[in-house]
């Protein structure tokens, strides 16, 4: 039976609907692919992965294994070692005025694969770029935008995030004062739509008029015209105005084909150019990576510590000089005229721009390993060391020994292998003690010459430690980052017996730093020395010192294994990623220790709290021990572990917050262990018992109290007296007896404290002004 007209109509309608649905599905797929194109390009550039690879939380660069003429790519998983090598290291000997220098090269590990490269055949139809100053009249309303930038704290990373720098730098003559360069930058637009690109570029960076700025939009493969280039010299910024706006998530490649940086006087460079008659001095041009915001004076980019990106660096330099950078050398070639060499390095992992580093040098001597030493071998990493020509090989072996010891110890502490095949250590004329760039350490040349002192050893260990802290991970709060590095340096030098002196003992360094810091903070609070002037020693970074004390305090309270687990969590979760904030640090510590509130109460807003510490009251009488905390006018309270020991060596550990803790205890006296960053104040009855522990036979009478504990006890007593914190005015007779006995011992209390404790102190010439200015204002002394 033939189909009716109605059935034919129904079949035709269904076919039409299916066809329209099919076209609509194709359109959706195309739109989704276009939306994801920028992100795919950025992921491939940043992690060097294919579609079949998996992006791990920790970005670990790929490795390449070469067998004969074939090459295979392998994605390294997180459980594998970063930057795996196939073990074949080539030694190339180059000519030198001193001795052959061993060049460390490795098989190509992650050959730079171009992503979103600007086609060489493209034809630009863009008008010429306007070169403006921030004071020029501009019809596009940029001046108003410039005023807004000046009036605010600009974070370039809020709108523009670099992913990869391809940087070429050139200095072809040793007397040249210009470092030439070009930059190819892969980046992403983030957060909000914009028609301007901001880069950091200090006053030492210039853009010649014949230089080109080219911007390529990656997903659609098209050119975006640059309308104008404007310098904001007071903000160290260059503003690139575009012909159209870019949406968030857009991947772009920005090419600057020419810029120039002045060498002499550049705060981002270290320069030593010896005269002709200084034949033994080295010629050196290097980056100065010890401070933030210095890379902007060498090359344009985003110079913010929380922004990390990969670096692909090539250096053109005089043929009779040598080049080192963060990464091992990948290739080198001579120029056609034979006067210059171009050295290219492997692509780095993601690190801040301020840690992009290089050194160009000649006339330095390489230290060779003494085969007769029992130096611990690091099988993965070769350590190369360059020092001044006048130093002897045997006098510098300690650098190789201690650097290798530190590499091994840090691997154990962090559960993270050092990621590079080489670590370069150089003696250079840097204005600071040392720099900590990944794979490239510079030490001040004067310190290298005095290994009998402890500081050069501490400095070297510190810089190696910061290969992990500052490079593999970065912490947003630089005070915490520097303090963690200091604590780890204390740990390594103590555990490895580096520079076999008493100075390397971690407990000793904790107490010295604690006393110095508490004394200096007393002076800051009162605008005068609370103790004798001789007891005050300046510290270069009180905030970092305070943080190091807190980490040691946490180790003493929760154990070394808790700290090791904490470090393992940090490096597993955050290696080569963005900076870690204080909340994430606190959560990481809570995950390995039952320490709710301790970490954050000391380390949140660390810069604002640099002069703050808890004051703990310990009242022990009639078998009752009561521990409480002073609450100051700001209502700031701490969560702090307190460890109290008695004459029978019985220890009580409490976690103190804003409430007091009462414990029944039968003992003659108690004293707090000096392993916390706090001051401890006791009642007069307990002080009277502790005075018996002073003197020649004090150790026999009080074997449970260490000398450090006793010294800290009476230092804190002096602080409490001079700051009017002893409020037991109804016990004047007992206080007078304690003071008289302490003064009679002669060396227990000194300075202003001794003057105020002595009844006849007001009549003594050396104490007269102290009594008038300080002692007469103390409530307890007036009552006595």
From TrEMBL:
Pfam entry (one): Peptidase_M1_N
TM region positions: 12-32
Entry superkingdom: Eukaryota
Protein name: Matrix non-peptidase like protein 1
Chain segments carrying region Disordered: 322-343
InterPro entries registered for this protein in UniProt: Aminopeptidase_N-like_N, Aminopeptidase_N-like_N_sf, Peptidase_M1_aminopeptidases, Peptidase_M4/M1_CTD_sf
Alphabetic keyword roster: Membrane, Transmembrane, Transmembrane helix
Species name: Ditylenchus destructor
CC per GO annotation: cytoplasm; extracellular space; membrane
Polar residues bias (residue ranges): 328-343
Residues covered by the Aminopeptidase N-like N-terminal domain: 162-353
């Amino acid at each position: 039976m033939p189909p009716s007209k109605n059935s034919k109509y129904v079949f035709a309608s269904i076919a039409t609907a299916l066809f329209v649905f099919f076209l609509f599905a194709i359109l959706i797929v195309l739109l989704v692919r276009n939306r994801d194109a920028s992100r795919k390009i950025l992921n491939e550039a940043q992690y060097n992965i294919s579609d079949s690879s998996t992006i791990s939380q920790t970005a670990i660069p790929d490795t390449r294994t070469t067998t004969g003429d074939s090459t295979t790519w392998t994605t390294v998983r997180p459980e594998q070692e970063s930057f795996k090598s196939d073990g074949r290291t080539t030694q190339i000997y180059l000519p030198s005025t001193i001795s052959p220098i061993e060049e460390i090269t490795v098989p190509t590990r992650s050959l730079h694969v171009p992503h979103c490269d600007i086609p060489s055949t493209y034809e630009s139809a863009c008008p010429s770029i306007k070169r403006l100053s921030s004071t020029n009249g501009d019809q596009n309303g940029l001046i108003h935008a410039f005023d807004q930038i000046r009036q605010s704290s600009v974070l370039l990373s809020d709108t523009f995030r670099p992913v990869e720098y391809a940087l070429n730098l050139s200095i072809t003559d040793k007397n040249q004062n210009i470092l030439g360069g070009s930059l190819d930058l892969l980046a992403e637009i983030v957060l909000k739509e914009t028609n301007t690109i901001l880069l950091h570029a200090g006053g030492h960076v210039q853009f010649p008029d014949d230089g080109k700025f080219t911007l390529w939009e990656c997903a659609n493969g098209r050119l975006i015209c640059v309308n104008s280039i404007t310098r904001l010299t007071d903000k160290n910024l260059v503003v690139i105005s575009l012909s159209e706006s870019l949406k968030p998530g857009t991947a772009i490649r920005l090419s600057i084909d020419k810029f120039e940086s002045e060498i002499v006087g550049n705060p981002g460079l270290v320069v030593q150019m010896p005269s002709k008659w200084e034949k033994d001095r080295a010629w050196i041009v290097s980056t100065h990576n010890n401070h933030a915001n210095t890379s902007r004076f060498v090359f344009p980019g985003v110079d913010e510590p929380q922004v990390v990106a990969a670096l692909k660096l090539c250096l053109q330099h005089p043929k009779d000089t040598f080049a080192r950078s963060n990464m091992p050398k990948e290739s080198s070639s001579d120029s056609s005229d034979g006067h210059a060499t171009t050295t290219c390095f492997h692509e780095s992992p993601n690190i801040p721009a301020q840690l992009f580093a290089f050194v160009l040098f000649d006339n330095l001597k390489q230290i060779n390993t003494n085969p007769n030493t029992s130096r611990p071998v690091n099988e993965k990493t070769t350590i190369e060391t360059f020092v001044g020509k006048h130093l002897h090989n045997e006098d510098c072996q300690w650098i190789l020994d201690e650097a290798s010891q530190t590499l091994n110890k840090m691997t154990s502490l962090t559960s993270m292998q050092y990621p590079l095949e080489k670590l370069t250590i150089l003696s250079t004329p840097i204005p600071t003690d040392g720099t900590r760039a990944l794979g490239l350490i510079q030490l001040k040349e004067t310190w290298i010459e005095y290994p009998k002192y402890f500081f050069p050893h501490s400095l070297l260990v510190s810089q190696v430690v910061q290969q992990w802290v500052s490079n593999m991970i970065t912490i947003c709060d630089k005070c915490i980052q520097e303090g963690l590095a200091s604590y780890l340096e204390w740990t390594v030098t103590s555990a490895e017996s580096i520079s076999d002196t008493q100075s390397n003992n971690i407990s000793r360094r904790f107490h010295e730093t604690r006393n110095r810091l508490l004394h200096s903070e007393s002076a800051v609070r009162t605008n005068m020395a609370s103790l004798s002037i001789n007891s005050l020693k300046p510290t270069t970074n009180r905030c970092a010192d305070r943080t190091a004390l807190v980490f040691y305090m946490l180790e003493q309270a929760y154990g070394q294994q808790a700290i090791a687990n904490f470090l393992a969590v940090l490096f597993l979760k955050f290696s080569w990623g963005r900076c870690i904030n204080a909340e994430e640090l606190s959560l990481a510590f809570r995950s390995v220790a039952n320490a709710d509130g301790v970490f954050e109460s000391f380390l949140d807003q660390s810069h604002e709290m640099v002069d703050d510490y808890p004051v703990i009251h310990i009242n022990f009488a009639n078998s009752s021990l009561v521990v409480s905390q002073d609450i100051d006018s700001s209502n700031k309270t701490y969560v702090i572990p307190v460890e109290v020991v008695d004459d029978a060596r019985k220890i009580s550990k409490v976690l103190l917050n804003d409430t007091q803790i009462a414990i029944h205890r039968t003992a003659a006296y108690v004293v707090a262990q000096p392993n916390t960053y706090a001051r401890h104040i006791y009642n007069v009855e307990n002080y009277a018992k502790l005075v018996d522990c002073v003197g020649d036979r004090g150790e026999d009478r009080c074997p449970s109290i260490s000398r450090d504990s006793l010294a800290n006890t009476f230092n804190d007593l002096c602080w409490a007296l001079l700051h009017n914190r002893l409020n037991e005015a109804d016990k004047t007779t007992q206080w007078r007896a304690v003071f008289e006995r302490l003064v009679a011992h002669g060396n227990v209390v000194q300075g202003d404290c001794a003057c105020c404790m002595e009844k006849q102190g007001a009549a003594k010439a050396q104490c007269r002004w102290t009594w008038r200015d300080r002692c007469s204002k103390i409530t307890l002394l007036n009552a006595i």
